Structures are given as C-alpha cells and as structure tokens.
Amino acid sequence: GASKWDVREKVWDYLEASGLADFPRPVHRRIPNFKGSRQACCSIKELDAFNRANEIKVDPDKPLEGVRLAALQARKTLLVPTPRLRTGLFNKIVPPSGATKEILRICATSQGIKEYSVPVGLDGKARVDLVVVGSVAVSEKGWRIGKGEGYADMEYAMMVSMGAVQADTPVITIVHDCQVVDIAEELLDDHDLTVDYILTPTRTIKTNCKRPKPQGIIWHKANGYEMLEKIPILKSLRYREQQTSKDVTLQDEHSALANANTPAALNEKAMAENTRPQAAMGSAQRGQHGVESDSLSPRLEASGTITTVYVGNIPPGVRVSELKCALREFHATPLRLNWQGAQHRAFLDYKDKATAESAVSSLKGLSLGGNTLRVELAKNQRNKGQVEINSQK
C-alpha cells in the first residue's frame, strides 16, 4: 500500500541516516547525490549504447556530473534540459576550443552548464541517441520514481513530440545500490518514464523492461493552462500538434467543454457571436508592408499608452494568417498587427505595457514554419499618433 511519496521518503531517509548522502544536502526533495556516484557514472563508458551514441541528453542533477564529463571527454554532443524548462527544452554544452581536462570538468558542472551552453530551439533538429536521467528510486524491472515534479517524464514526452527520440532510444539512470527497490506496478502512470539500464557503484543492470515508454505528451491529462504558463515551450509544441489535427484538449478544457455544450450555454454563445464586433485583422498579402488592426479609438491613439511587441525570425514561407491563428490560440490577439513579411518580422500593438508583457510571455518559444520566433517588447516605442515603428536591430 506504499505510495510513490512513501518510497521517496524511505530512500531519502536511508541515504541521510546511513551516511551515504553527498553534497548537496539534505537530499530530500532532490534527485539525491550519493557517495560513489562518480564510480557509477564511469561504468557508462563500458556500455555499447554510450559508445555508439553521438548525441546524449543528460539531466543536470549532481549525481550525473560524471556522465556529462564522460560525454564531453568522448567528444559527443551533450544536451542538458534547461532549468525547469522555463526558456526551452535543451541547452547544448559547447566547450571552448582546445578545452583542457579541467575546463571540461567545469563544463560538466551546474556552473559550467550556465557558462558554456547555448539554447537549442524546437527547430534545432535534435536527434538524441541516448537519454540519461536521475532517479530517487528504481526497480530492477526498469520502473522509475523521480522526485515528484515530473520534469524528466515531461522532457521525454516533449522529445517524442519533437521526433528527437525513437521507441528504441536507450534510457539509463545512475543510482546508489540502496535506491534499487521493489516498486509496485500499480504506482506507475502512462506518462512515467521507464529505464533500460541501471548503473550503481557495484552493478550494471539491464532491465529488459517491457513496459512502453510515453508516446508523447498526454494532453488530456495535462494540468491545463497552469502547466503551459510554467513551461512556455509547451505552447509551441501544442500548437504544432494541433496543426496536424491531433487532439490537444487539456484536462481542464474537457470539463469546460462539457459545461459549454449545455443548451443554456450554447444559446448564450450564439447571442455573444451575434453581438461581437467584427475584428478587422484583414488580408494583407505575404511580403507586403501593411497595417492590419482592429480600429483603435481616438482616445487610445492619443493617450500614448499603446505598447508594441516585436516578432522576428519569421520564415519566408509563413503567411500573416498563420501568425494571426497562433496569436488567437495563445490568447495574445493585438489591437493592431503590422505585418512586414518581406523583412521577416511583424509588430503587434497592445493597449498597455502589462498586456504587451503578458503577450510576450505567452508567445515565448513559439515556432512557425520551422523557426523559433523572436518575441520581445519593441525597442523603439511609438510616440503619440506616430504610425511607423523603427526597425528592431
């Protein structure tokens, strides 16, 4: 009858009480570091899965530092998830030219990840050959329990959605022997990531796990808009999948849809549609310099409160209609859209700075036509009544 949390607490308590826990302490609520982690990490070099791999994704946890170092020393491409997935999915560790062993050691640390990494966007065409994750507990069958926040599971699901991993991409975890425990199968969910190899200071365990790994993001189980706000890149992945006609309805949207389909709600919606002012977001042709907007009231124009958002890195093949569709999807529809397709950019006018900043946050990580768009407040805001916006440098 033990829960996942019971298993975590038991492992954390034992590591601390037995003197096996290592910096950072205490290990509770972390992927725990342990004495002997370097030895466990070094054994990865004996695995064919490691030696064959060109591109390796390794979590940023302290006990996996030795794996990150081994990957860099073997001149493999090393990808590390961005912290809490706030700014994207991966950072690629790029050591300086002619890096010494000591510099590579620094690159493998959390500080090195900050200093020697560059972001990899959704359009980065990552092809991950090996995935290394941290665990709090794992069974010899390959069933894994993390620290409870779900980031490793989400990262894997996102890699599936991006096409970065295949069904046969090996997954490895590094733990102390005491973290290898029996785990009841009923504790596992569809989104839980399983592992193919377990490396400890004394053993290499091939799990031969038969339980399928996540097949992608399970949108109907996702914790709705709260999760999309916490992990902005999910918005872009969701939009991509929606364009392929995949059902991306979120958990809280399912209940909202059920309530919205009652006769009273449908009648209310029909009345609202009939009375709503028609948007004038228009039909400027791709490549033309044109302004498309809802009509702005003279009071708003004169007040000088309009704040403009710059959208850059728009690919040549993208039409203004695709951008407008994305803006509606991410609840970031502007008062006015100034489309400059030939210059691969657009400017969006919002009623005030707070609304503009909210739009920037919502659109962060948005990808159209294979490019991750550059979205930020325009550097040169317009004066009162001014129509043109200076180029974003």
UniProtKB/TrEMBL annotation:
Keywords in alphabetical order: RNA-binding
Sequence segments annotated as region (Disordered): 274-296
Cross-referenced PROSITE patterns: RRM
Keyword RNA-binding: yes
Residues annotated as domain RRM: 307-380
InterPro entries: FTHF_cligase (IPR002698), FTHF_cligase-like_sf (IPR024185), MTHFSD_RRM (IPR034359), NagB/RpiA_transferase-like (IPR037171), Nucleotide-bd_a/b_plait_sf (IPR012677), RBD_domain_sf (IPR035979), RRM_dom (IPR000504)
Highest taxon listed in the record's lineage: Eukaryota
One Pfam family per UniProt: 5-FTHF_cyc-lig
Transmembrane segments: none
GO molecular function: RNA binding
Cellular-component GO terms for this entry: cytoplasm
The protein, known as: Methenyltetrahydrofolate synthase domain-containing protein
Source species of the chain: Oceanodroma tethys
